[in-house]
Amino acid sequence: MKSVQKLQTIINYQFKDEQLLQTAVTHRSSSKNKNNERLEFLGDSVLGLVISGYLYNRLDKAAEGELSRVRASLVKEDALATVARDINLGDFLLLGSGELKSGGYRRASILSDALEAIFGAIYLDAGFDQCEKTILFLYEDYLVTLPSSVDLKDPKTSLQEYLQSRKIELPVYQVTRTEGKSHDQIFTVECRINDLNITEMGTGSSRKKAEQMSASSALKQAQNG
What's the domain count of the chain? Predict the structure, then answer.
């Protein structure tokens, strides 16, 4: 693990209480009592507020739904992990031996949680204004060109809007198969649009993901039909 002193240089903020940063990069696999879970909880809220405020001012004509979709794309796990990889955060994480061996320092969930924990730590160390500066500094490249809210609509929403605009009955989703152990299941979901005689299947690690996959296929079928 690299020194957190170098990490402070990378994120352009020097902690008054460096122990806060040390805790922020400590995964629960390394310490059950002194880890980053509570800081991650705090940082998640601060991040959401900072990005919400930025988008409210930047997209001054956007409706609530559009703002929500763009915000979700910026604060989701994959987006956070991307920002974390930009600063090589994995090099600074304190992990237990099991997580180290399994490559935990590359895992999106661990990286995203640690980055949120850092935001929480900065909030405690220096307050909201400094935390906002750091978040906008690290997100700078991703705020230059914001994604279109239309492109960010999930397949289920897009399919529903497509069918409603044509006064077609909404689809029915049904889980047809569940495989694997409780902590590692694969779901298969059927999306059926009776009025169009369309039935599409989707699989995923959760029911929601499987529904989105099946909805995506059904939407393509409906648009091409």
Answer: 2
